[in-house]
TrEMBL record:
It comes from the Bacteria. Belongs to the bacterial CoaD family. Pfam families: CTP_transf_like (PF01467). This is Phosphopantetheine adenylyltransferase. It catalyses: (R)-4'-phosphopantetheine + ATP + H(+) = 3'-dephospho-CoA + diphosphate. InterPro entries: Cyt_trans-like, PPAT, Rossmann-like_a/b/a_fold.
Amino acid sequence: MLRAIYPGSFDPVTYGHLDIIKRSYKIVDELVVGVLNNNAKMPLFSVEERAKMLEEVTKDLKNIKIVPFNGLLVDFARQQNAEVIIRGLRAITDFEYELQMSQTNHKLEPRVETMFLTTSIEYSYLSSTTVKEIAVFGGDVSQFVPETVEVELLKKMNAKRRV
């Protein structure tokens, strides 16, 4: 059984992330979506909120687990008994960074391979950062995120405006 991890911050999850999840899902027997609790970043959503949104938007897909994690990705891969790390690539700048990370991960854990999937062309420009910026200024994010994510994003933005 081939188990893979698709790690990310998913702050918030976008259609670009879902594109990689759905395509990965067809390739592996089990997909673990690892929701990174990155202390170096100041996320808009808590790791629990991000995991809950991911669970909601992937509820119709079987053999997918949403699992929060922190620390080294290779340690998480060992804990999950994963053989593959899946990473999405939007542009050449993503490739340079992801190549360096995959080589480092392979050095730390030689049994774990990294598989790169290029993002579908309609999502190649899309990032969570862009979605948050649009939302901050009251723009329409419905074409970038699922409806349940849009609702949570608008709630979060309204709460921030009240502060």
